[in-house]
Design goal:
Chain A is α/β, with parallel strands linked by helices. Chain A has helices at about 20-30, 50-55, 80-85, 100-110, 135-155; strands at about 5-10, 40-45, 60-65, 75-80, 115-125. Chain A has one domain (about 5-155): Rossmann fold (3-Layer(aba) Sandwich). In chain A, helix 1 packs across helix 5 (about 135-155). The chains are: A alpha/beta, B alpha+beta.
Chain lengths: ~160, ~425
């Protein structure tokens, strides 16, 4: 498939599982953000797994936003790349909790269809239990998270 | 032959949900051989009581992330039959398209990602991607088409949003249908390659005669509505489904077992093939011959081959239905009206990827659901899987334990069980050595 030169911001997670919703809520807010530059697609990936491979494939750059248990304080935001994630033990030690997403990324890489640039914005969750609201710490992280994502896509677009 | 064998697969992999296979042979006698279902019940039927009928299809589609269109369709049909709704031809055609999209998606996932690794000597799809990247890429291409088909017709694949009681709330444009038609046509090369690949696999020869149950229609390989057909010669109205399913509790399973005239029956692609192969598309019939299927077929491992045949049939039917819709044009019609009456009952049935699915609702004059019952295909297959395992194990006792385990796991996988749905499942547990 031909790659087109756009960026995909892909938020993943389950909005019924407390802080796991952070990626999905972030992309919902980003869509309406006035500073979002053209040429950037913003997609709610939900809890999809293998279906994310063909979704990501056409893009030159994919920015994944998700709750990632990293052993930091709740609401802490970390930017890392797929190479960083793999170096820390094939994604597992980062506990992307969505094993489907990790499997999809590994499969895409094995098949040679992973976009050239894959960046993660991980947010440390406080709880990932049945709940439809974010914890206060993760709620407070949304604003700086969205600003960081806007800065990321504006830096090279 | 070893006197004592214990197989204990605690959580069988590459099936949907959690189940264990337990085999216990003592002094050469098979003492225990069962598929234990260990997931918690989910209480969807109780959840529906007291809710407006309009919510039923959206709630019950959540029973399954794979068969969401199937559950929504069975739910809508139950509601529509209770509320005397007459569907337009366009609604029937659009639902058929979405339904085929889901059958394709589910079958492609099962045969390529879950079944093929066993035959190609790899543990999962990840090493398969290293050893056979073209196969995995093909599977993903086909899966993408089926997902996009669902998305175009019903808004999204998982948990369809555009299907409603009496019709649709969103309509694809003719231009979108034309584009799907082109993509479906282009996918035929991948479909043919799928038949070629699965035609080369060494399907285990094990067979056991059993009863097959599927929806039957006079002139069609129809998957929505119809009558309940049995390979033992019975044909029942949908309203009489409880006479067929006879759900009962089994101590080793949180999912109920089912039995009709015998102590078990089989549903799914092989059952459908056995009961209505004459209505397959010509290309699907040729695929069946290539895959070594001929009716009646009593080899449960070939359920996966029958799924490949249905992939061919569904693509052919998708093209045909798209042609019809493109020619007719799409009318943005309102949903057909309902008629509320006291304690109205309706049964909806469709043949989802894993077999025949029943929903039954009683709806009050106020439009609130008074009672609900859902009978899921995997539950109906469980008793038959147990009996297959009991017939298979004595014939393979001389083989190494890993071989026994693999063959049992492959047998369970051939049924493509969806344990989360039926718990209302997989690990093999050999106990005894």
């Amino acid at each position: 498939m031909d790659r087109h030169p756009t960026t995909l911001i892909l938020g993943t997670g389950n909005p019924l599982m407390g802080d796991d919703a952070v990626g999905v809520i972030a992309v919902q807010r980003l869509r309406e953000h006035p500073a979002l530059p053209p040429g950037v697609d913003v997609v709610d990936g939900g809890t999809d797994g293998l279906g994310l491979i063909p979704l990501m494939e056409p893009y030159g750059r994919v920015i994944l936003v998700d709750a990632v248990p990293m052993g930091l304080s709740p609401g802490a935001i970390r930017r890392f790349t797929w190479d960083d994630a793999r170096l820390v033990g094939h994604g597992r030690s980062l506990s992307l909790h969505q094993t489907d997403l990790t499997d999809a990324l590994i499969l895409a890489e094995t098949l040679g269809c992973l976009p050239p640039e894959v960046v993660f914005y991980g947010v440390q969750p406080h709880t990932m239990e049945w709940d439809q609201s974010l914890s206060p710490a993760v709620e407070r992280a949304l604003s700086p998270l969205i600003e960081a994502l806007i800065a990321e896509v504006r830096s090279e677009s | 032959m070893p006197e004592n064998i214990k197989v204990n697969v605690h959580h069988v992999t590459r099936v949907e949900g959690h189940g264990n296979i337990v085999v216990d042979v003592r002094d050469g006698t098979l003492e225990k051989c069962e598929l234990q279902i260990v997931e918690t019940p989910r209480f969807f039927e109780a959840m529906l009581r007291g809710r407006p009928y309009q919510q039923a299809s959206h709630i019950t589609s959540r029973i399954c992330g794979i068969c969401a269109v199937g559950h929504a369709t069975a739910s809508l049909r139950a509601t529509e039959r209770a509320l005397q709704v007459q569907l337009s031809e366009q609604t029937k055609l659009l639902r058929r398209l979405a339904f085929h999209g889901e059958i394709l998606d589910s079958h492609i996932l099962h045969v390529y990602m879950l079944v093929a690794p066993d035959f190609l000597g790899v543990g999962s799809v990840i090493p398969l991607a290293t050893s056979h990247p073209d196969i995995v890429k093909r599977a993903l291409r086909m899966k993408k088409f089926s997902g996009d088909l669902c998305q175009t017709i019903v808004g999204r694949h998982t948990h369809p949003i555009a299907m409603t009681v009496g019709g649709f709330t969103h309509f694809a444009t003719v231009q979108e249908l034309v584009e799907l038609r082109e993509r479906a046509e282009a996918l035929i090369a991948d479909v043919d390659a799928t038949v070629e690949l699965f035609g080369t696999l060494p399907w285990p020869a094990f067979e056991r005669e059993t009863e097959f149950i599927a929806l039957v229609q006079p002139d069609d390989y129809g998957l929505i509505d119809g009558k309940i057909g049995s390979s033992d010669g019975y044909e029942l109205e949908l309203d009489d489904y409880r006479q067929v399913t006879n759900e009962r509790l089994a101590p080793h399973s949180t999912a109920k077992h089912a039995a009709f005239n015998r102590d078990s029956y089989m549903v799914g692609a092989l059952a459908r093939y056995n009961l209505k192969h004459q209505h397959l598309s010509p290309r699907a019939k040729a695929a069946a011959a290539h895959l070594g299927l001929s009716a009646p077929c009593y080899r449960p491992y070939l359920n996966s081959a029958a799924q490949v045949v249905e992939i061919v049939h569904c693509i052919d039917d998708v093209i045909q239905v798209l042609d019809t819709l493109i020619e007719r044009g799409i009318e943005r019609e309102d949903p057909a009206p309902v008629t509320l009456s006291p304690h109205a009952r309706g049964v909806g049935a469709c043949d989802v990827p894993r077999g025949i699915l029943f929903h039954e609702y009683q709806i009050g004059e106020d439009g609130l659901i008074e009672e609900a019952n859902c009978v899921i295909p995997t539950g109906q297959n469980l008793a038959n899987i147990d009996r297959d395992m009991r017939a298979l194990v004595p014939s393979i006792l001389t083989e190494p334990e890993e071989q026994i385990t693999l063959k049992l796991e492959m047998l369970v996988r051939a049924y493509d069980p969806c344990i989360s749905c039926s718990t209302h499942f997989l690990n093999v547990e050999f106990t005894g050595k």
